[in-house]
């Protein structure tokens, strides 16, 4: 015969509720702030140093012993209907346990004082009655079990100030008011449920506040941008108050609006950042975004070179001959991609689209096309052949060799002498040589030499355009901090260095030196210049003379 029984709660659960509920001291203090709001306080004063935390408010406090036994002593005591109407945040009555985890607690309210030492006395606490210490509200003092390091103290203050900045009462932290009324702030969108502000570009998280108190942060790759959402109505949160439950009716109304606004934001951007690309890819994968004539131009595909391309670039109508994939920074991969033998995707693109191989990627993209496109061969991603990268790589001769000056052609001799004479435009001292390679236009050991590939020089013209292309290659190699004759990756530091040095005019100075020095070096090598090259040199000289004359006229 079936027997009806009740579940039991083991005493160890008390310790888990206390010691494992709070993720940080900031979160524990935040719980005390919410208690102050629920107690009807108009202000909450917080003081923090390396050893103590003080939280004082002017709320109702504890009015009777019975209230202490029911609401302080009993964790998880359900709220009455009358209490539910008065509470702004309170749902579980376990939040105070987070403060117990970080130190010896002393709670003082009216004529009552409660002392809690979770690590010393466990689930016992001391209640003292009769001493009137606080006439209004509640005062909580925490003597920390472990002193805070200076960095931890600053992080706690900084985090707490952010988490309470839209609190519905005045919050003072170490004598500075850190809260504002959200109704007075500037927002992009306001609904019956929330205030919403989105960043124009990615970077940072989307911070979610429940009635002005921080709950959690949505990483920018989810929506493609950061921002702030402050709910006007209570969100249904989990026990730890660090997430919104999926069945929350308020969040179900807010979230679609955020998705709509961030999608519009992303589709209107001319340049996508990593967060934006990740968000758009997620929307494609999750069937939230169909591919039409506009969306096919989204540059969410990263090639082996690190450059970003549109989805349209993978279509047969875009003259792509084949697809393959390898890791970002592969020299052979870059050479294959730039030669047009195949479009070489970076491996992490497959992970981003949550597929195992290129064939699955093709099928996924085809399935996301709008219905009117699916019948046209020009839009059929799957008709582009997929080739094995290793097979293509074997066709390249990856050997890189430096050539002796005596083995150079007359044109190459002129080029290398021009480079050596004009390299003073760059601060580095390097040995410049002509080399031979099937896999790179240039390479360096990042310390002693820079090699320029013979086929690269062959296609250059002795003109400002040719000098500019050469300057870009040389700066590229000089920005490498390690040997790039093997596969390598261009990280953010590399691109920043290249940008900064370009902005300082190093390539422009090199081009100027080339134009000025070319006639001298040609004469030194007994090499005749063409009429076009001589006319270019004349124009540069005439321009320089005109500038000198104009400056002289202004000083007289």
Structure, described:
This protein has 20 helices and 19 strands. It is elongated. It folds into 4 domains: 12-180, Histidine kinase-like ATPase, C-terminal domain (Heat Shock Protein 90, 2-Layer Sandwich), CATH 3.30.565.10; 183-267, no CATH class; 299-394, no CATH class; 401-538, Zincin-like (2-Layer Sandwich). The longest helix is centred in the last third of the chain and has 25 residues, at 531-555. By secondary structure, the protein is α+β, with helices and mostly antiparallel strands. 38% of the residues lie in helices and 19% in strands. Strands 3-4-2-1-5-6 form a 6-stranded mixed beta sheet. Strands 7-8-11-9-10 form a 5-stranded mixed beta sheet. Helix 17 (464-478) crosses helix 19 and helix 19 crosses helix 20.
Top CATH class of the largest domain: Alpha Beta
Q: Which sheet architecture does the biggest sheet show?
A: 6 strands, mixed
* Counted beta strands: 19
Strand content: 15-25%
Q: What is the radius of gyration computed over CA atoms, rounded to a whole number of angstroms?
A: 34 Å
Number of domains: 4
Keywords:
556 residues; 4 domains; 20 helices; alpha+beta; five-stranded mixed sheet; 19 strands; six-stranded mixed sheet; elongated; Heat Shock Protein 90
Concise account of the structure shown:
This protein is α+β, with helices and mostly antiparallel strands and 556 residues long. Helices cover 38% and strands 19% of the residues. The mean pLDDT is 84.
């Amino acid at each position: 015969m079936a027997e009806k029984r009740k579940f039991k709660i083991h005493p160890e659960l008390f310790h888990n509720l206390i010691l494992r509920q709070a993720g940080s001291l900031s979160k524990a203090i935040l719980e005390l702030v919410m208690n102050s709001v629920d107690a009807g306080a108009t202000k909450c004063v917080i003081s923090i140093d390396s050893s103590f935390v003080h939280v004082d408010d002017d709320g109702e406090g504890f009015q009777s012993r019975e209230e202490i036994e029911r609401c302080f002593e009993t964790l998880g005591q359900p709220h009455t209907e009358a209490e539910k109407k008065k509470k702004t945040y309170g749902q579980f009555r376990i939040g105070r346990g987070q403060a117990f985890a970080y130190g010896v607690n002393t709670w003082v309210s009216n004529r009552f004082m409660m002392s809690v030492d979770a690590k010393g006395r466990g689930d016992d606490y001391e209640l003292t009655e009769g001493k009137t210490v606080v006439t209004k509200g509640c005062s909580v003092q925490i003597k920390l079990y472990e002193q805070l390091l200076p960095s931890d103290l600053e992080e706690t203050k900084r985090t707490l100030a952010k988490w309470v900045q839209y609190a519905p009462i005045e919050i003072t932290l170490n004598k500075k008011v850190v809260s504002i009324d959200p109704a007075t702030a500037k927002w992009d969108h306001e609904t019956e449920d929330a205030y919403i502000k989105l960043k124009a570009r990615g970077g940072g998280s989307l911070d979610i506040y429940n009635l002005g108190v921080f709950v959690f942060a949505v990483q920018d790759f989810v929506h493609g941008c950061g921002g702030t959402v402050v709910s006007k109505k209570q969100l249904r949160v989990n026990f730890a108050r660090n997430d919104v439950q999926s069945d929350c009716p308020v969040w179900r109304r807010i979230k679609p609006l955020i998705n709509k606004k961030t999608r519009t934001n992303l589709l209107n951007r001319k340049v996508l950042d990593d967060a934006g690309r990740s968000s758009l890819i997620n929307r494609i994968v999750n069937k939230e975004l169909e591919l039409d004539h506009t969306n096919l131009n989204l540059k969410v595909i990263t090639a082996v070179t690190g450059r970003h391309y549109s989805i349209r670039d993978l279509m047969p109508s875009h003259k792509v001959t084949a697809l393959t994939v390898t890791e970002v920074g592969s020299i052979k991969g870059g050479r294959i991609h730039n030669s047009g033998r195949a479009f070489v995707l970076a491996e992490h693109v497959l992970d981003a689209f949550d597929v195992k191989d290129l064939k699955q990627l093709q099928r996924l993209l085809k399935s996301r096309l709008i219905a009117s496109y699916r019948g046209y061969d020009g839009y059929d991603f799957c008709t582009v052949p997929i080739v094995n990268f290793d097979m293509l790589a074997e066709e390249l001769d990856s050997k890189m060799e430096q050539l002796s000056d005596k083995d150079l052609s007359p044109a190459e001799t002129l080029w290398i002498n021009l480079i050596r004479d004009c390299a003073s435009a760059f601060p580095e001292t390097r040995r410049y040589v002509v080399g031979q390679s099937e896999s790179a236009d240039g390479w360096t050991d990042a310390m002693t030499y820079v090699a320029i590939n013979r086929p690269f020089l062959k296609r250059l013209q002795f003109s400002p355009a040719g000098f500019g292309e050469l300057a870009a290659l040389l700066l590229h190699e000089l920005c490498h901090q390690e040997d790039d004759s093997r596969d390598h990756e261009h990280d953010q530091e590399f691109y920043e260095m290249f940008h900064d040095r370009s902005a300082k005019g190093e390539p422009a100075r090199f081009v100027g030196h080339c134009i000025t020095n070319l006639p001298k070096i040609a004469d030194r090598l007994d090499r005749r210049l063409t009429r076009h090259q001589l006319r270019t040199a004349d124009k540069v000289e005439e321009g320089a003379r005109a500038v000198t004359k104009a400056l002289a006229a202004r000083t007289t």
